[in-house]
Amino acid sequence: MSQEEIAREAVKHALKALRQRHLVEEGAHAPAIIALSRPIISQGSEWKEKAENLETELQQCYKAQSRLSEQLVVEVAESRASKALLQEKESLITSLQEELVQTRDECTELKADLEEKIKALELVVSENQQIRAQLEEITIKAKTAEAENKMLIDRWMLQKMQDAERLNEANALYEDMIDRLKASGLEKLAQQQVDGVVRRSEEGAEYFAESVVPSTCNHKIHAHEGGCASILFEYNSGRLISGGQDRSIKLWDTNTGSLSSTLFGCLGSVLDLSITHDNRSVIAASSSNNLYVWDINSGRVRHTLTGHTDKVCAVDVSKISSRHVVSAAYDRTIKVWDLQKGYCVNTIIFHSNCNALAFSMDGQTIFSGHVDGNLRLWDIQTGKLLSEVAAHSLAAVTSISLSRSGNVILTSGRDNMHNLFDIRSLEVCGTLRATGNRVASNWSRSCISPDQNYVAAGSADGSVHIWSISKADIVSTLKEHTAPVLCCSWSGLGKPLASADKNGVVCVWT
Questions:
Q1: Separation between Cα atoms, residue 459 and residue 464, nearest integer Å
Q2: Which of these, 114, 181, 242, 490, could form a disulfide with 190 (CB 3.0-4.6 Å)?
Q3: What's the confidence (pLDDT) of residue 4?
Q4: How far apart are CA 406 and CA 396, in angstroms?
Q5: Which residues make Cβ contacts (< 8 Å) with residue 457, sequence separation at least 6?
Q6: Cut 0.70: pTM above it
Q7: Distance between CA 270 and CA 287 in Å, rounded?
Q8: Is residue 442 a contact partner of residue 433, using CB atoms and an 8 Å limit?
Q9: Is the pLDDT of residue 246 over 50?
Q10: Beta strand ranges found along 257-342 (DSSP E)
């Protein structure tokens, strides 16, 4: 039986007991009422009123009893609700106690972890102190080595100054000898003896010949798909090397126009080429941000020089050794590489991108042509800017070509002018231009003939113009290309001349 039913039974039983008590009291008072009513019948009306009053009071008692019963029911219901709420609170307290126990366990685990972390931190701090002590020792050693290095550099600079003095004496002797040779009518001998000294490569003495102004296209070669941006001849040879948009390097026999060999391994378009003085290695500047060095005999890649962060657009090799290479990229850096070590040994950072590069004859100076139109000279050892001259007013320099004597440098620019500079004074010694000659791109390469008498440059209309340096005028215009000519190269033997265009066609002129 439920609590509610028990409460209802209790209320019914209480009402029943009250009725029985009322009846009992009524029966007990009845004789007394009758006995009293007899002697006082006269007073019946008065007692009748009292009886009525008593009945009224009895009814009021019944009503009060009913209200009390209702209140009892309400209080029983409220008691049940309070009991249920109490049970909920007890269950909530139980769950909270369980959570408290669990939280205490987690707190204990966290305390253990914290103690482990504190121990590890103390260990790291002790190791850090040891590393700092080692760093201080290394710093002291580095400062000592720097002082020693500075002393060695000072000694080296002194030696360079002495070498420069000896070179000046040799130049004075050379100039005196040239004057005497001119006076005796032996000017050709002086030209063959460039600078009074026949330079020697690792293969022996270089050959000097008078250049021939070409007039005929001997061979028209479809060399590369998508365009050919760079060509050059091997030293003292008629073999031509070309690089193109098809990521290949090709070697051509200019006598027959046939392909000798192909070098693979470049992962981007070839933008510039250079070759070591011993004709053993060819270096390519690539749009893949890298330089690639091939062994020509084996056809294998010797080095992949990485370090630039944008396309490499210019490269040159030292003319006195096959070890040092200089490159320029559109990340505003010029890098010097050591091929024996296979990595970069110096980096020059400048605000204007460099389009063209060339080594000086002594291998100690770098010539660079920039987008801002300036020609700059850098010290290869220190990376310091030695000199600067405005080569092309507000127009990018597209090409740099050093004469075989090393005394004159040719620059070409987007202003469609070709300027000749005296290396010793950096003064303009000649300016070449022509109606219709328009430089085709930011990397259009022009060249000087080996005997330093002529300049060849391609044009956007597909023609190749040849100027006489002494006359500062065009002596020949070659027309065979049907696309803008991007580069020209003159064989060190004096002939032939080669040119390449935007369609990948190479023309060999004799």
A1: 6
A2: 181
A3: 72
A4: 23
A5: 399, 412, 418, 432, 437, 439, 444, 446, 447, 464, 465, 467, 488
A6: no
A7: 7
A8: no
A9: yes
A10: 258-263, 270-275, 281-286, 291-295, 300-305, 312-317, 324-329, 333-338
